[in-house]
């Protein structure tokens, strides 16, 4: 009898471990005083992570085959602070941590990331650098609903400047005959009028730069950051995956405080000016400008991480960047996700020379390596910052960007490389294969469905399908291409791509800007 009891007890213990080992359950109707088992879920992701962390610290048997944090299907977890994932939350290759199911939200939804067919823009009359003024037709004020210039400070101006935009908070408007003279608040006024690239153009090939006026938007979502995954140079975050999780509703706060003047790709300028004497630098004799940039805000941010993956997730109504691997990230899998209604860039990875160093100074920033970006659907992105991109990779190495479907983008589609340099910065062996890009360059030109920059030895562009660029009504030139090799691109083999042209825009399949000598491009 005693033996039977022992056998029964062992059986029950075994069944218990089989049913619950490694699983933590989370529900908005749960309690953080609960244990996290299926019938007693905890209420917050923070509590679930703490349980997992303690299991690993104490070497609990539950960690043997990994830990799965199960967010209740259909539940929306509205955060009042970002979810932080730290080195102590790391798994191992044999015992990863997986977060699955549910929706992570920054607050109330709004329509700020859903873009209309086209914004209603008008052409400016003059761009006065000396007096830091933009001159527009006075009748434009009525078009945009400004009936009293005393209300000017409630508005902002969005400026089209070739491959980027500026968002400038208005300081004052004065009327002079049939013209309106607009001045702007600092710091953005200083950046906009001091830095030459990009700036608005007057009477260019297809006319002058366009603008629109609108009330300064107030974000309804309470958070601009949903998840921060942050290691350090001493300890990375590693072996964590998000699967079948939805991320939604993050705000974009910087333009409310500082305006938004960018260098390229959505990167905000924090200081910039034109070199007025003895132009050039030792590494770039013709360089005429200096700029320091920071990264755009991101809903999900990853830094100092290894094997942090996102699979079959949904990202929607997020501004500005949806998913950002900033620097020192290795071996990520970004596979089968859907990005829609994104204010800025959908997927960003690698350093872009952001502060404290000047952005044009080539250095070996290539510490983000070995990514697979595969089978993602990216649609209707860059809706707030038209100069952002669908996939933006800076100083990166050994990247595989394949089988992604990109559509409805206001600037460039898939972008790899940074630095404007022929020098060896560590970028190499990047593969752009089997992607589909269409309906890009909707507003801004100097664009490419696939866009590259600088020296990247051993890299490949193959078997992609890229439509002709969109016939933007506001572009000031015709520089948009299915594939654009910008600023010292080198080291690419380009073959077996299906590229379309629209003769009203551009008859060339490839755009070139001082390419290097080691390009092998199929005609």
Given as residue ranges, the uncertain stretches (5+ residues, pLDDT < 50) are 7-20
Structural class: mainly beta
Please indicate the percent range of residues in DSSP E strands (runs of 2 or more): 35-45%
What CATH architecture label of the domain at 230-248 and 298-521 applies? Answer: 3 Solenoid
Protein name: Right-handed parallel beta-helix repeat-containing protein
Question: What would you say this structure looks like, in words?
Answer:
With 523 residues, the protein is mainly beta. Among the domains are: 16-105, so0334 like fold; 230-248 and 298-521, 3 Solenoid (Pectate Lyase C-like), CATH 2.160.20. The protein is 9% helix and 39% strand. The protein contains 5 helices and 43 strands. The strands form 5 sheets. The chain has a 21-stranded parallel β-sheet that branches. A hairpin with a 2-residue loop joins strand 10 and strand 11. The longest helix has 19 residues, at 2-20. This is Right-handed parallel beta-helix repeat-containing protein. It comes from Palleniella muris.
């Amino acid at each position: 009898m005693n033996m039977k009891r022992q056998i029964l007890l062992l059986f029950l213990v075994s069944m218990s471990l089989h049913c619950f080992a490694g699983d933590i359950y989370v529900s908005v109707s749960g309690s953080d005083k609960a244990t996290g088992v299926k019938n007693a879920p905890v209420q917050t992701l923070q509590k679930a992570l703490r349980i997992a962390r303690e299991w690993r610290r104490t070497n609990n048997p539950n960690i043997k085959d990994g830990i799965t944090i199960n967010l209740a299907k259909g539940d929306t977890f509205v955060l009042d602070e970002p979810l932080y994932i730290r080195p102590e939350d790391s798994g191992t290759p044999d015992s990863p941590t997986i977060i699955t199911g549910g929706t992570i939200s920054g607050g109330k939804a709004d329509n700020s990331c859903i873009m209309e067919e086209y914004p209603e823009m008008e052409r400016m009359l003059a761009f006065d650098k000396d007096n830091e003024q933009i001159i527009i037709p006075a009748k434009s004020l009525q078009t945009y609903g400004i009936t009293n210039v005393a209300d000017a400070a409630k508005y902002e101006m969005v400026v089209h400047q070739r491959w980027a935009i500026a968002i400038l908070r208005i300081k004052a408007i004065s009327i002079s005959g049939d013209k309106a003279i607009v001045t702007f608040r600092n710091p953005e006024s200083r950046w906009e009028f001091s830095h030459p690239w990009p700036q608005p153009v007057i009477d260019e090939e297809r006319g002058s730069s366009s603008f629109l006026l609108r009330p300064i938007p107030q974000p309804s979502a309470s958070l601009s950051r949903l998840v921060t995954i942050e290691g350090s140079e001493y300890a990375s975050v590693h072996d964590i995956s998000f699967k079948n999780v939805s991320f939604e509703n993050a705000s974009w706060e910087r333009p409310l405080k500082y305006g938004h003047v960018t260098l390229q790709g959505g990167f905000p300028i924090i200081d910039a000016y034109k070199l007025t004497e003895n132009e050039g630098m030792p590494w770039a004799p013709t360089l005429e400008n200096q700029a320091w940039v920071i990264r755009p805000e991101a809903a999900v941010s990853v830094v100092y991480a290894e094997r942090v993956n996102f699979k079959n997730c949904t990202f929607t109504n997020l501004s500005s960047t949806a998913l950002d691997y900033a620097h020192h990230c290795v071996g990520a899998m970004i596979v089968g996700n859907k990005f829609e209604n994104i204010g800025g860039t959908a997927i960003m990875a690698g350093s872009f020379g952001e502060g404290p160093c000047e952005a044009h100074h080539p250095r070996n920033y290539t510490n983000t390596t070995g990514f697979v970006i595969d089978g993602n659907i990216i649609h209707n992105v860059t809706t707030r910052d038209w100069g952002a991109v669908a996939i933006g990779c800076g100083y990166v190495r050994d990247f595989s960007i394949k089988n992604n479907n990109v559509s409805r983008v206001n600037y460039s589609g898939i972008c790899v490389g940074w630095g404007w340099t022929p020098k060896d910065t560590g970028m190499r062996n990047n593969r752009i294969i089997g992607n589909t890009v269409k309906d890009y360059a909707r507003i801004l030109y100097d664009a490419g469905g696939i866009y590259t920059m600088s020296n990247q030895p051993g890299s490949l562009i193959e078997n992609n399908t890229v439509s002709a660029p969109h016939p933007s009504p506001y572009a000031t030139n015709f520089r948009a291409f299915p594939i654009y090799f910008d600023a010292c691109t080198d080291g690419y083999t380009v073959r077996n791509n299906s590229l379309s042209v629209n003769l009203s825009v551009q008859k060339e399949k490839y755009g070139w800007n001082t390419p290097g000598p080691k390009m092998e491009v199929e005609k």
